[in-house]
Amino acid sequence: MRLSYTRLLVNDYEACFRFYADILKLPVLWGDENSRYAEFDVHSQTRLAINQREVMAEALETDTADPELPHQDRIAIIFEVDDVDEAAARLVADGARQVMEPRDWTAWGIRASHFRDPDGYLLEINSPLIPAPDQT
User: For the whole model, what pTM was predicted?
Assistant: First the structure.
């Protein structure tokens, strides 16, 4: 596994986008002020991403709960793997708590599975649905 993103799940997406893009002056790699998801270059192989909090809550089917409650996620740590199904099966066999089985997220361009660490932090393992040209 390779840590690929730290994803902040934010309430005020537009203000956060402006903060990271305009105040911290991080180069925007993907997204804009209205896209509800953006990626920033932090001069590392790991990227910083922001995601409208409700988008992740909808994906994990926790969107009917009060977003102010502690069980609503504020951060997700993203690991890229070669094979999501294989990595997910190994994690489950080793005792990781899976909250979403592997599935294709075509709108996101990834296959992903979600887990929780012992303290409840959200972890995602994913791989691109379409391999990058240099991976074919």
Answer: 0.70
